[in-house]
Amino acid sequence: MSDEHAIASAIIRLMRGVVYQESDEDTWLTLERAGAGVRDHFATIGVEVVVDDDEGYAYLRSRPEVEGEEALPRLVRRRTLTYSVSLLLVLLRKRLVEFETGGGEGRLVLTTEQIVEMLRLFQAESTNDARLVDNAETTIKKAADLGFVRQLRGQSDHWEVRRILKAYVDAEALSGFASKLREYAGTVTADE
To answer: Whole-prediction pTM value?
Structure first.
């Protein structure tokens, strides 16, 4: 495969979504070997290529606006997430931090039941448990569609938490979430 073909292939794969080192070795090698060509291509349209070698993923994001430069239209769309999906992503990110700081090696894998229980703590009291589980499963599928979790082959109730989540839910977001939870807990306690 020629360098031009490899670069074009890497560009197309990045435009489709996150590239993982473990599952797309050819594109990863192209990013290592000819990353400047890929970055130059995207730079002309106001997009950055972000490569996290430690975690093994690469993705595209809009280049931050520079004062004094005319802003280009956004190419990479921002996604508006529902409360349930946002909550799930923050909870999964928190669990990923706990997994890593606890010495966990490899991949974080959770069952559907474990994820439902994580979400249950933050759902309104309900006598309809089946609806709560259905809503949680819908939320998990949306997170999978967004690429933050991946269903394991042959195990319909096991989900790998993808490390790309770190790029979208950072320490600042986790801290803000923790303070909101403390605020919420204080309100609930005061109302009782």
So the answer is: 0.72
